[in-house]
């Protein structure tokens, strides 16, 4: 699969969120060919090696190779990101012209405008009604020419993407709903707070083990500290575990988490579900083509 | 209440011929003075009282029990503790308002800890603490929980920095707690264990609001808490709580006056539907209703039975359609305050106009802030419709995508009593969409017609003319927010010269430069604060201001990639405490 050269104009101020959308819509063996999202960095590496069937056992190596590839792509794109950051950080130099590119792009790049409290923004995106699946496909087409980030512009998609730019730093939260078989009340997890599957799985492990008992006792900060040290591989990634972590992608298909590079996962995940292994066997999860 | 003129007249008339008494000061014994002064609650009045003379200053400081500090950096904890000795209740506000919109670095400051340490020593009888836009660490919460045996009320509005551990300290140790009110907190999932830490014999809670904390709490613990706190009158839960759980809570607490529901996203059986409907029907005292996440037309009717006494309906977390709103409003004849999202459209606002004759406050938030499509949301028509039906309107916050001068002129003619007029035309610098002219006449009409105007937020394409109008007419204006407006320094100058009661001025992305900044030299000491970002200020201008006015703190934050000369974000405020010591490296104090 050939990577398209970037068709986005670089006169546009930086959209660091684009880094999340950098993954090619390859892998997972989907038959439908889709136009790849615009990329800032050409030649971010080929993803071909990831188009194979994966099982949970592959995880430890998968995670590290994902990290390697993601770091290579992010390192190639970050200089671009940094260079453009000064333009994007706030409305200093830019005037948001009403005649700016159509749609939401102009408005969403001005920091702190419209003046809506961060709390309310979070609330809006996290409770927006979810439409049917068509939104994502059309968003991709829209983004081709306008350099917009997938789904950021569509508050009503299930994938809640809240952009809050702080000085020079872009703080994006990517909250997705997580449900678990047998538990009526779901949780939400901020995927942007994680950089790899392992860290995500640990958080979910923690979240759902304690959901029956009362209240998480560890703060997020402590969680990070724990992450840094050596620990057991999370149960969710353990093939012998009772549970399997799956996600629904943009097309409404349920996939095994871990099939694709982390960044590609971020760009396509809509929500997560922790399933009991017994039920998974009956499900036709999409698997990678090619190698088995 | 203003006793001062009368008293000071007595004072001055007694001085020359003092009835034979050689006492040059107050004719009243101190005890009487203190007794009288202890009846004065308003902190503004108290500040005036303290300026009369030294005796009054002392009498006032010994009798003040409520402390209000609008800018935590305007004074230091030590100064406060020295002056006031009997404080029972403190209100502290920290970061400038634009921090709500992520315009400040995370570690900007406003950490409450140094205050907490001082209060722990100076005010062991502290009962209430209300914080807004401050950073509150777990450590501070633990100190709070352990230092004040009479502590009753904690209110945190737009605060961050704490986790489950801090809240646990509060719920575990504050045995007399009557109020725990956490609003608009922007914390991630911090954990919900705190709710389970109220002791089993704890029953004093009257106000509990955790609607903005997204963590899951133990419903069993919540239910037990609600059932044993017989004085509970305000309960606002988060969206983890489901409808049928809510029903069980309402059965325990039918006398609630304020309710924030959980999520409506649930499939109810007919029996459950009936149960929740009747539970709401039993809530005869409900005045305030909020939450209502994911409410749909099928489930909203369960609320109807509770609406007859409602004065404040906050539907801003729900995406409602016009028909749904209209039907609901038909059951709310006593509404004074209404918050909605613009999904209700102009049609929904017409329903507001016709159903809510007593309405005093309307806030319309955008359901999709980044959508520039004019077909969505509300327009000038909706606002007009409301103004025709709701003549008592005094507070409006209106986000829209198009507006006309003519509409605003008519609106303020219909509703001249506005005290708070905050209009946000979401696309910056957008002109009157019919005439293509600037929106100067609109805000001119507001300034001229609404003589009681205290707070104004302007938007749309605006020239200096708008500010001329404001300076000329808005004599009661205290807070002004300006964005993407003005043509030259003159605009800002008009405001600084013309608005005698101005206290807070916040400006972003306007062509105001050093001349404008410096024209307000004398004024800033009479204001709480000035914020200017993305304007034409330079470091030189800011340094000059700092040099000329030593009792002002001038803080500058430079954006990444900005050059030596520019002062990107400037925050100026008066202070008797000198420059602050806790500014992060990014904040330059001049």
UniProtKB/TrEMBL annotation, chain A:
Looking at the record, the residues that make up the PB1 domain are: 173-279
List localization entries.
Answer: Nucleus
Name any one Pfam family assigned in the record.
AUX_IAA
Where composition is biased (Low complexity), the residues are 1-23, 61-78
Return the annotated region ranges for Disordered. Answer: 1-47, 61-108
The protein's matches in PROSITE patterns, at most eight in alphabetical order, are given as: PB1 (PS51745)
**Keywords recorded for this protein, A-Z:** Auxin signaling pathway, Nucleus, Repressor, Transcription, Transcription regulation
The protein here is known as: Auxin-responsive protein
UniProtKB/TrEMBL annotation, chain B:
Q: Does the keyword Cytoplasm apply?
A: no
Domain F-box stretches: 28-69
Q: Which SUPFAM superfamilies does the entry link to?
A: F-box domain, RNI-like
Domain of life from the UniProt record: Eukaryota
CDD domains assigned: F-box_AtTIR1-like
Key words, A-Z: Auxin signaling pathway
Query: Which GO terms fall under biological process for this protein?
Result: auxin-activated signaling pathway; SCF-dependent proteasomal ubiquitin-dependent protein catabolic process
The record ties this protein, via SMART domains, to:
FBOX (SM00256), LRR_CC (SM00367)
Q: Where is this region: Disordered?
A: 1-27
Low complexity: compositionally biased ranges: 13-25
* Residue runs in coiled coils: none
Keyword Nucleus in annotation? no
Q: Name one GO cellular component term.
A: SCF ubiquitin ligase complex
**InterPro entries reported for this sequence:** COI1_F-box, F-box-like_dom_sf, F-box_dom, Leu-rich_rpt, Leu-rich_rpt_Cys-con_subtyp, LRR_dom_sf, Transp_inhibit
Classification via PANTHER family: F-BOX/TPR REPEAT PROTEIN POF3, S-PHASE KINASE-ASSOCIATED PROTEIN 2, ISOFORM A
Q: Could you tell me what this protein is called?
A: Protein TRANSPORT INHIBITOR RESPONSE 1
List the taxonomic lineage. Eukaryota, Viridiplantae, Streptophyta, Embryophyta, Tracheophyta
């Amino acid at each position: 699969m050939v990577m398209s050269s970037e068709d986005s104009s670089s006169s546009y101020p930086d959209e660091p969120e684009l880094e999340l959308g950098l993954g090619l819509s390859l892998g997972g063996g989907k038959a439908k060919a889709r136009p790849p999202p615009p990329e800032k960095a050409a030649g971010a590496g080929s993803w071909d090696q990831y188009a194979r069937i994966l099982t949970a056992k592959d995880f430890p190596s998968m995670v590290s190779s994902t990290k390697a590839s993601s770091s290579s792509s992010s390192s190639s794109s970050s200089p671009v990101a940094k260079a453009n950051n000064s333009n994007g950080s706030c409305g200093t130099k830019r005037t948001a012209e009403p005649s700016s590119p159509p749609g939401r792009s102009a408005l969403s790049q001005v920091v702190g405008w419209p003046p809506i409290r961060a709390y309310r923004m979070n609330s809006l995106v996290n409770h927006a009604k979810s439409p049917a699946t068509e939104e994502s496909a059309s968003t991709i087409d829209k983004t081709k020419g306008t350099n917009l980030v997938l789904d950021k512009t569509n508050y009503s998609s299930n994938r809640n993407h809240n952009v809050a730019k702080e000085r020079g730093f872009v703080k994006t939260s990517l909250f997705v709903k997580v449900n678990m078989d047998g538990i009526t009340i779901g949780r939400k997890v901020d995927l942007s707070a994680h950089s790899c599957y392992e860290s995500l799985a640990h958080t979910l492990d923690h979240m759902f083990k304690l959901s029956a008992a009362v209240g998480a006792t560890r703060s997020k900060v402590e969680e990070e500290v724990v992450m840094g040290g050596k620990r057991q591989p999370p149960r969710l990634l353990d093939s012998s575990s009772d549970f399997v972590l799956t996600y629904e992608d943009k097309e409404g298909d349920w996939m095994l988490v871990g099939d694709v590079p982390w960044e590609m996962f971020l760009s396509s995940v809509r929500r997560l579900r922790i399933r009991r292994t017994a039920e998974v066997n009956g499900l036709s999860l999409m698997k990678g083509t090619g190698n088995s | 209440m203003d006793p001062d003129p009368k008293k000071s007249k007595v004072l001055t008339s007694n001085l020359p011929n003092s009835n034979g008494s050689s006492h040059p000061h107050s004719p009243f014994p101190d005890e009487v003075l203190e007794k009288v002064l202890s009846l004065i609650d308003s902190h503004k009045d108290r500040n005036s009282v303290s300026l009369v003379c030294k005796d009054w200053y002392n009498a006032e400081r010994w009798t003040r029990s409520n402390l209000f500090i609008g800018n935590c950096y305007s004074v230091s904890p030590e100064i406060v503790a020295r002056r006031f000795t009997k404080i029972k209740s403190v209100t502290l506000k920290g970061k400038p308002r634009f921090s709500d919109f992520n315009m400040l670095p995370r570690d900007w400051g406003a950490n409450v800890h140094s205050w907490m340490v001082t209060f722990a020593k100076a005010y062991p009888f502290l009962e209430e603490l209300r914080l807004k836009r401050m950073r509150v660490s777990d450590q501070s919460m633990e100190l709070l929980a352990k230092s004040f045996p009479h502590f009753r009320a904690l209110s945190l509005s737009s605060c961050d920095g704490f986790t489950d551990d801090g809240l646990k300290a509060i719920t575990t140790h504050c045995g007399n707690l009557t109020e725990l009110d956490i609003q608009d907190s922007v914390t991630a999932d911090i954990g919900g264990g705190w709710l389970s830490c109220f002791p089993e014999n704890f029953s004093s809670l009257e106000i509990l609001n955790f609607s903005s904390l997204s963590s899951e709490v133990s419903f069993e613990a919540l239910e037990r808490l609600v059932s044993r706190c017989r004085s509970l009158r305000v309960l606002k839960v988060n969206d983890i709580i489901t409808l049928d759980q809510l029903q069980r809570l309402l059965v325990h607490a039918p006398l609630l006056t304020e309710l924030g529901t959980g999520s409506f996203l649930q499939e109810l059986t007919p029996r459950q539907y009936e149960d929740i409907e009747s539970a709401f029907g039993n809530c005869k005292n409900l005045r305030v209703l909020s939450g209502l996440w994911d409410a749909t037309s099928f489930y909203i009717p369960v609320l109807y039975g509770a609406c007859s006494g409602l004065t404040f309906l906050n539907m801003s977390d729900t995406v409602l359609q016009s028909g749904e709103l209209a039907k609901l409003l038909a059951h709310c004849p006593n509404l004074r305050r209404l918050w909605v999202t613009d999904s209700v459209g102009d049609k929904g606002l017409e329903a507001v106009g016709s159903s809510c004759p007593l309405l005093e406050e309307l806030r319309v938030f955008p359901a999709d802030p980044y959508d520039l499509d004019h077909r969505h949301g509300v327009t000038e028509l909706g606002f007009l419709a409301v103004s025709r039906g709701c003549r008592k309107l005094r507070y409006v916050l209106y986000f829209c995508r198009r507006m006309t001068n003519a509409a605003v002129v008519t609106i303020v003619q219909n509703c001249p009593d506005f005290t708070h007029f905050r209009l946000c035309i979401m696309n910056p610098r957008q002109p009157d969409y019919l005439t293509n002219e600037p929106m100067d006449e609109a805000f001119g009409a507001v300034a001229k017609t609404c003589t009681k105007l205290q707070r104004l937020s302007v938007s749309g394409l605006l020239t200096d003319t708008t500010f001329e109008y404001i300076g000329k007419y808005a004599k009661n204006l205290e807070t002004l927010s300006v964005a993407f407006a003005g043509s030259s320094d003159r605009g800002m100058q008009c405001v600084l010269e013309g608005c005698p009661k101005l206290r807070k001025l916040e400006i972003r992305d306007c062509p105001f430069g050093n001349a404008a900044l410096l024209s307000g030299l004398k004024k800033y000491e009479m204001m709480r604060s000035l914020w200017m970002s993305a304007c034409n200020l330079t470091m030189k201008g800011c340094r000059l201001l700092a040099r000329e006015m030593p009792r002002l703190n001038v803080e500058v934050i430079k954006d990444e990639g900005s050059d030596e000369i520019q002062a990107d974000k400037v925050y100026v405020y008066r202070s008797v405490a000198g420059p602050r010591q806790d500014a992060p490296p990014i904040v330059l104090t001049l």
